[in-house]
Structures
1.
Amino acid sequence: MAKNRASWSKRDVISILDFSREELELLFEETDKFVTQEKAPNTLSEKIVATAFFEPSTRTRLSFSVAALRLGAKVIDLSPDVSSLLKGESFADTISMLEGYADLIVLRHPSEGAALFAAELCEKPVINGGDGSQHHPTQAMLDLYTVSRTLGQIDGLVYAVVGDLKYSRTASSLLYALTKFKPKMVHLVSPEALALRKEVYQRLKEVSLPMEVHSSIEEVISQVDVIYLTRIQKERFADPDEYKRLKGSYVITKSLLEKSHAIVLHPLPRLEELPYEVDRTPNAAYIKQAHWGVPLRMALLNLILGDSQ
Amino acid sequence: MAKNRASWSKRDVISILDFSREELELLFEETDKFVTQEKAPNTLSEKIVATAFFEPSTRTRLSFSVAALRLGAKVIDLSPDVSSLLKGESFADTISMLEGYADLIVLRHPSEGAALFAAELCEKPVINGGDGSQHHPTQAMLDLYTVSRTLGQIDGLVYAVVGDLKYSRTASSLLYALTKFKPKMVHLVSPEALALRKEVYQRLKEVSLPMEVHSSIEEVISQVDVIYLTRIQKERFADPDEYKRLKGSYVITKSLLEKSHAIVLHPLPRLEELPYEVDRTPNAAYIKQAHWGVPLRMALLNLILGDSQ
Amino acid sequence: MAKNRASWSKRDVISILDFSREELELLFEETDKFVTQEKAPNTLSEKIVATAFFEPSTRTRLSFSVAALRLGAKVIDLSPDVSSLLKGESFADTISMLEGYADLIVLRHPSEGAALFAAELCEKPVINGGDGSQHHPTQAMLDLYTVSRTLGQIDGLVYAVVGDLKYSRTASSLLYALTKFKPKMVHLVSPEALALRKEVYQRLKEVSLPMEVHSSIEEVISQVDVIYLTRIQKERFADPDEYKRLKGSYVITKSLLEKSHAIVLHPLPRLEELPYEVDRTPNAAYIKQAHWGVPLRMALLNLILGDSQ
């Protein structure tokens, strides 16, 4: 355990693939402490955390801010200047500036690889708060934590990942995360136009993640333990009529869940794919999931920036 | 008194109508402490306050932020994400997110009833920082505090509420607040097009608030003790000429005040209705009023979030 | 020394011309402490610093924020409301509002004289974070600190100030700062269209700053000890072809520096005038310069707001 703890110290968090099962399990145990603890320790009182969001994301930005503040850290935010930064200086110079000001950078960026590039430039730890279309490692950590603490296990379960598997970085990240565990089966449920990218599918095949492709949630609902739902955005469809025709197959309704014991996860924010009527079903796990976002990120920041013990 | 103090604990602040005279007087006494105290107590050091302003308002946002910070609380602000939130997820989901992050939410919203809706959804206290066209309870508290601490009383005075009574939520809120006290008379002074909404007038009539309607401040200036001035915005008039013709009747000039002992209040920001020449008259109370915004909100946050004693 | 320290207390920082050589040297000595100290003292824990940037400036805003936070102060930021403030109330009323909320205001404004005007209105210290085209005093302090701590002296050196001398407030501020010391020579290197404003040149002449005007850096490169480079913005040229033709004369390349022992300073952000290849030359001092921005501003805030000793 002590070894794992040391492996987190001052570490970049770029892709969930960079973490071992043991490291993730340690993170989950640390998260448990912050879930139950009323009063947060003041472990980061000498630290400054910078949030640099080149794409808006309320939940990710605020959950990191709250996590840092609760541990006593100070937070600086790049938001007021993002629009002029995008027109102005290079990304490399912006990162170098933040390296001078902060002890850790949380970055969200539309470009694939932006977080990795920042981490290579910067001697301070960089946390990827989502970049490109594949990586959002802290969301995947939260997803697995929620499965683990709700169902008692991650291994041996049947998962359905539903919706836009092409553009949703949370879907890809969760699939990468599952390769660190032993799921019984992963059903990929999406319209063809929003199917998982070939390169992601190949990578998962190589590590023998058991997967099946489906075009409707109805086909698998009776077998799954975990439904992971993502937003389907109208704009992704060339033809609005196709959107109307297809969207029903990726909406989780209350009546659909009556046939199912599965827990429902969603990274939020949601659109039509997750109606409010589901909030009060026993299946809904996404509200708890959202609330655990802060303690999980407290545990993460504390492992990375706190004194190794 | 102890009973009143308990009645403030964990309370929502949606409309000034929800508070009793005794509760307001307790708030004013607590405010006195923060006005005179040099060093603020660190009573909220474990708390996080979220400011969620779906409409810009510098004074209200910053005075709540400063009040929270001075009491040791941390502040998170939704501003950088407001534009994308307005296009994106539901207001209910946004409030639910903030409920997970903060111990109290200060909300400003253009829609009537937004604060009440948020308070119903959210188990944490919600403070209405202004919604729709009628409610801005903390401004009304500040207005009455200023009258009370400047003139020594709220009862028995003659008030003139002047300007845009139709769209100004601060004017309606003050009138609602006055129903908790015993003003001698309230003069409503506005152009016809900007007269008090019928439903507000009716409600005030029902509780027998003594009111008279006027179309010019000149008609009542010699009798009033308190002038409450609001902005008249050009855009409210269909005809720009009408604006030019009328605005003079709702401007408080230095020469007008020479005939008057009245104190002048204004929620700020101001436009042409309150020329700078008035700032140095003995009548001007709005600068003091603005500076008392922080101690009043410190008292409010402390009563709601501090330990009940 | 004690006398100098007192002269900094509660002081406005509007123009570098307002400070004596002794005062600047005291600031530099105080900065040394914050450069070497690992743990910042909590001297400003009762203070609130407001950043009011009516023009975006990431480095200046964040370096002041970080400096204040590291000293234990709280920071409030006007950014979310700047666009509505620019349409709305007067600048004077905005400053008066901030005076009520904060213990010190850091201001950036496009208009010449905005900081002076604010300082006259406001009893709390105002720091000019850049206004108009001539003044950015804390950047000039940082520039001279970097020269002093890199070359061991400010006097007796040969300087080249290169690029846009007309619109760059950092260039003018540095020139004003040099009048407090004894440089051997200052070369002004710019295209004619971007030459130093006559009024600035006159003012420098009056205090006998030794100056020479050049149109290319090549002319002086072999003699200079310090190259101060500023951005040349395409938009300043009426004719894009002229920009293309001229810009080469104001770019500092690695091969150019092979003939030179000069250190290179740049206020950042940079554009084409300072290629990345220069970053790894021994001449590059601008990265160190940027990192010293925080300790210098810590020293400044501490001298102004801390207890005089």
2.
Amino acid sequence: MKKFIDTADSLLDQSLSGFAKAHADIVQLSSQPRYIKRLTPAFPGKVALISGGGSGHEPLHSGFVGKGMLDAACPGQIFTSPTPDQMMAAAEAVESGGGVLFIVKNYAGDVMNFEIASEMVTCENETVLVSDDVSLPKSHSTGRRGVAGTLIVEKMLGAAAEQGADLAACKILGDRICQNTASIGVALTCCTTPALGKPTFELGENEMEMGVGIHGERGHDTQPLASAGEIVEQLADAINKELNPKPGQKALLHVNGFGATPLIELHLIYDLAACYWEQRGIEITRSLVGNYTTSLDMAGCSLTLTLLDDELTGLWDAPVHTAALRWGC
Amino acid sequence: MKKFIDTADSLLDQSLSGFAKAHADIVQLSSQPRYIKRLTPAFPGKVALISGGGSGHEPLHSGFVGKGMLDAACPGQIFTSPTPDQMMAAAEAVESGGGVLFIVKNYAGDVMNFEIASEMVTCENETVLVSDDVSLPKSHSTGRRGVAGTLIVEKMLGAAAEQGADLAACKILGDRICQNTASIGVALTCCTTPALGKPTFELGENEMEMGVGIHGERGHDTQPLASAGEIVEQLADAINKELNPKPGQKALLHVNGFGATPLIELHLIYDLAACYWEQRGIEITRSLVGNYTTSLDMAGCSLTLTLLDDELTGLWDAPVHTAALRWGC
């Protein structure tokens, strides 16, 4: 295992400490229990947005804490759900009279722990469950996983809350963004968790894994390594089948790297994916390209498409001031 | 070789096309000859800043084109200098009466080609040569290489030019930033160029390469893989020996990933490096952490320290609106 670490046990706390120091103008770290909150308090009555999940997906979620996006994020251990005490402490720290909206990626551990927190916090709260990964059928026993579409949900809801939307409106909006968002990913290499010290599955030199999640789990299919054009066609077909956009539809296209895929390749993927939808009459009016929802040191990428209307476009464009996304502020 | 590509020959043009599409609100691409220029023209009389170099280091330099930073960037083929016709076309496109400042990383090919362009363009021009890599002695035959410190030079000069500094002032300022900036890097894996199809050098499972450049060249020393703490100590010692900062000195600390190192590790490195200097009385007042000056898919990182005064701090903080750095706009 080749990583910059001192010990597997200390990685998370050292990394969070560095993150908080490097972005001390935006966030504040609580160590016991662990959460990151925005430095500048929200206005009284604003709905507080709280997300979280296992670590290893940076900048998700801590990198999205700040004005116009999340009020707090709860990082669990690597690929491990945070615990209810983290969420409750975060809620207490950032709730300002408008209630709490939990944004949860659909994984059994996250769902269970956020449910417990939801029942135990004393303030009014709602939950938006993100399950944008179309590599699994809708009928899958635990439902579809939440992947890179989560940041789009967090960005748009963050803007709505900043503009004064109340808890009920945020919940309805969040569910609507989820319904208009679909993602799917492919891996060229697997990731190595510090605790295990070796890749969680093996891929041959001429193989790729289609439909992977973000926790080093296998996808639905191991395939021969294909050209970028063939890969994008397969990914985009799966998204298109789900969302079924009509010609003239506006959309946001997000090409996400899994942590070890360089920008030169992600921009090539973006070019091919944009062409795919433009050829079908879809207008790609907003874009995001980079390593945002990662899986430690996995090489690979995912495509996410969100169908836009004027409201969602406005929420995407609204000012945001976080470590990983910043514009208009 | 596991990459998202169609063919090695088409990679650069496809990637530039995707980059320009994804950031069509900031940049414009010229394909023949290849350069990226800012979409919104600068005010008349502004010094035009032009950089460039081999591709494979994204987001450097194209990702730094926009208001408050570069006016144009000239991308060569992978790890290959751009040619004078690119620089001359870029100069003609963005020169607006204040002359051109070329910002050049110290590599033989880049230096030669920019020198030819400098002689052939009809407008007044100056060159700032960046050679921040302290892994080589100052007496090295071709001088020290330009690495991750380049973006700091580009950011601060971009702010100065935007504030109306003239060509002579920009040249003096650029040289001063260079003198106050030092970098050094370490690799855990080597990178694979698409043309070669395999790593340009081999590293054992328990080895790291100290003092690497950003073109897949070997460093000064192959060492046993060490803990992050030991690695940071060695890197920071080399920078400290060069810049010799005194207690009370303010500084900008930049932790740069080489393309395949995830943020969770870079933030841990930042934590250790910030501690190193704080223990010596240096105040880390500005920071930047992420994959900014990359070497394709190399796993590794570099540290860069720039000694700050009020003027340089102000130039760093000034508004910037590019694909890869954006604040205050």
3.
Amino acid sequence: MEIIKTIEELKKYRKTTEGKVGFVPTMGHLHDGHLSLMKAAREECNNVIVSIFVNPTQFGPNEDLDAYPRDFERDKRLCEGGSVDCIFYPDVDEMYPREELTIVRVERITQKLCGKTRPTHFQGVTTVVAKLFNIVQPDIAYFGQKDLQQSIVIKRMAEDLNMDIKIKVCPIVREKDGLAMSSRNSYLKENERKAAPVLYESLQKAKGLFEKGENNADKIKETIRNNIEDKVKKEIGNIDYIEIFDTENIDDVKKIKKGNAIALAVFIGKARLIDNIIL
Amino acid sequence: MEIIKTIEELKKYRKTTEGKVGFVPTMGHLHDGHLSLMKAAREECNNVIVSIFVNPTQFGPNEDLDAYPRDFERDKRLCEGGSVDCIFYPDVDEMYPREELTIVRVERITQKLCGKTRPTHFQGVTTVVAKLFNIVQPDIAYFGQKDLQQSIVIKRMAEDLNMDIKIKVCPIVREKDGLAMSSRNSYLKENERKAAPVLYESLQKAKGLFEKGENNADKIKETIRNNIEDKVKKEIGNIDYIEIFDTENIDDVKKIKKGNAIALAVFIGKARLIDNIIL
């Protein structure tokens, strides 16, 4: 497995690869969710490149950039275990050697859901992903459905800008109790961790109602809200949003159809947890 | 010579090319300036692709999108004469099949010079050029120094986003009397056309002063302003800007150094003419 820290070396390496290149962009602190993306890439591609880069431009001024968990030695072992061919592990100066004037922004759909609480987040994501795509030049890039809005935004960017890259979205990987895997779960204290599966549980409840014929979005949101407020004490958590929408334009729906998504974000302790389900 | 109208066909064609691909993006109505770019591409590359696309998103609401001169049959003959391998000639629906949510923007340096009068112009340019780069995937792309700010902005975009494309800027091609070639020169009436070489003449005068030791930017700008106002009657023309700046950050300079640029824009009749010189 190659470990490459500079853009120039990565571009050189890329000239030696043959066949399809699969790319898994990550911020490190890998978990089974990331491993499932590597596995999907391994199955479809001749060469698998994982990037590990905690991108400062996607964190807001009061967010957790400094606290974000990092453990490269552990990540390296996990990549080796996942038969990854190459880790791209640049530092911040390598990715942003001077004032970055260029921004890639997706309008409208980035202002909803997480974009309301994190107004500059997606612009940081799309810009760094565009940079990484140009550096790695993959055939297929893999993203997790856990960050559903992110995957919709990146798909849109790739299509709008005519990028020659297929975007694949892989299913959410969960802990045994249903909590969606996330690097930010490490922020949770014991009692918070116990409360955290309420996101998934509420989504399952909503799904059950929809399958029994309930298609009123407000009613379903109300059920989710009540379920969370019942189970999470105000001292440890509060709801950021619960939204039901179509997965292309992230437009609110009033009458739910198959293929619509329910997404939610809940602050629990120091973590802001997100989860979603496509009906 | 191939004429290709769809993105899918162009991507297919691109898989059949061998060696270096040179790309000349244009809005058509080709003149000797464009031909010099094709010639430079022909000399350096195995394959030369010219795009002809009058990009609506780089025109402001009150600008000349509808009036912009178009003559594809003439352009085709000129490309054939220039030994171009392929013309990419998409229509607007091909390039923008639905609401375009994604924007590529270069901050700060796009708000100066022409950006003051044309605030959304460069965002339209960088977005369409990023799209064209992703479609054509050239090794080298050729731009004219006549649009100096555009070439600085595009270079910056390519560098910031780590695009694997070399940007080459070719010298301005001029009419015998010094007027920089431009598709918009066709808007000029006879008396306006006679006045138009004043841009070049003023730049030459400024260059002469600088070479004689004058490095005060305000004095040089004043000389240019006086020269233009002497020779162009108020009824047919007025100055948009005269600026002296460094060519990386487009920052104003007070004391001129070698390598700085002087650029100006003058409305003459219905045309907004631009010209520049690098000292």
